[in-house]
Amino acid sequence: MPNGMSAEALPRTLAADVPSYVEKSGEAVRISGWIHRRRRLSALTFVVIRDRTGLAQVVVRDPATLEQIETLGEETTVDVVGTVSANPKAPGGVEIVDPVFSALSDPAETPPIELWRPKLTAGLPAMLDHAQVTLRHPLQQAKWQIAAASLRGFRATLDAQGFTEVHSPKLVESATESGANVFAVDYFGRPAYLAQSPQFYKQVLVGIFERVYEVGPVFRAEPHDTVRHLAEYVSLDVEFGFIQDHFEVIGVLRDVVAGMVTAIRSDAPAAVELLGADIPDVPEEIPILHFREALEIAGAPADEPDLAPAHERAIGEWGQREHGSDFVVVHGYPTAHRAFYSHPDPDDPHWSRAFDLIFRGVELVSGAQRLHRYADYVRVLGERGLPVEPFAGYIDAFRYGVPPHGGFAIGLERWTGRLVEADNIREVTLFPRDLHRLAP
Ligand code: AMO
Q1: Residue-wise pLDDT tens digits, 28-42
Q2: Which fold has domain 131-428?
Q3: Comparing 2-103 with 131-428, is the CATH topology the same?
Q4: What is the 3-state secondary structure (H, E, C) of the chain?
């Protein structure tokens, strides 16, 4: 054992901290992690150890240890005690020599994905089939580190503005977003659904807490295979009361997105660097277009009811060109084509107080001021030919005083997908669920 120390007595050093030993050649050090790669040269073998913070290089020369590591395949977890050696050619300027390896798991089988490569070369289906292993790659971990930092920024921004975090049921009685695209489940012999969004509950909870947010899974039985839709995704929902109009909601959305960006920069700089991700600046005032103007800019017919993906791309380009902004808000979508709970524009009810946020040419957020009077809900459901009864548990709240309110939902995977310029949303989802995939 180097310097006469036992492996147990040495505290663990993380890979990212190994370079800080550059002035301490000859000291004993202990690292723990996965054997990321064994690189065999004629007289020695480099063993790269991976932990949650990065990679560290170990040099093996001793014949008995060389023999031992031949039996420890890549991905075996190990403890390594060795001696620090400054070497300008080693990653971080420091390597570990004269190591003693102790395996912490059975020798790993050859992984189905070649994780030692600087960039994964497997096709997406193979990567997803073996997600348990694929996600170990430093670049894959980095994508989720960006997502995790974003979640911290989301929560921190809202906590600072007096919001309460809530969790609403995911087994529900009625669809929220539309009749289609729900997963039906057998609930003790009764029909029920997996929640498509916490929409109804977050509005009801405004009647209790004034300001709420939720981070949770939502379920959409998407019948199409697209690069931007999942059957289960993480929805970042916000709802708050005592508002004047939807512009106030857009103001909070702006703060939240700025908070997410700040958290990525402060909490995940290594991930950003590894991925070369272009983290956007969020303008003080996000450029905003009325739906009518958006159609014009996108070159779409004036009677188009919604923006198609190509229109969103054109609006994204407009934001860049005219304002140097990666973000554009489009508001005032036609009321008839938005969810029934959307508030119409009081000056012209043909248009709504609903909006979307487009980020780098893709819809990232939907939101709106909502109806808040019971009679309005009864009227709107009637106009849309929807029965009141399945919605009773929701709209009853409005009989007892709910303030004018609004909110929005951000799709987490859309956000990270655009941040790291993923071609497919599945690349930034830990274990994606889609038309064909229910495992791993
Ligand atoms: P909406 O249905 O537009 O609105 O969803 C909000 C945001 O969620 C993301 N998103 C998806 N991400 C991955 N896969 C999907 N299948 C998928 N569908 C939607 C998008 C989208 O902008 N209740 C309203 C929100 C509100 O008004 O507060 C709602 O759910 O980024």
Answers
A1: 999 999 999 999 999
A2: BirA Bifunctional Protein; domain 2 (3.30.930)
A3: no
A4: CHHHCCHHHCCECCHHHHHHHCCCCCCEEEEEEEEEEEEECCCCEEEEEEECCEEEEEEECCHHHHHHHHCCCCCCEEEEEEEEEECCCCHHHEEEEEEEEEECCCCCCCCCCCCCCCCCCCCHHHHHHCHHHHCCCHHHHHHHHHHHHHHHHHHHHHHHCCCEECCCCCEECCCCCCCCCCCEEEECCEEEEECCCCHHHHHHHHHHHCEEEEEEEEECCCCCCCCCCCCEEEEEEEEEECCCCHHHHHHHHHHHHHHHHHHHHHHCHHHHHHHCCCCCCCCCCCCEEEHHHHHHHHCCCCCCCCCCHHHHHHHHHHHHHHHCCCEEEEECCEHHHCCCCECECCCCCCEECEEEEEECCEEEEEEEEECCCHHHHHHHHHHCCCCCHHHHHHHHHHHHCCCCEEEEEEEHHHHHHHHCCCCCHHHHCCCCCECCECCC
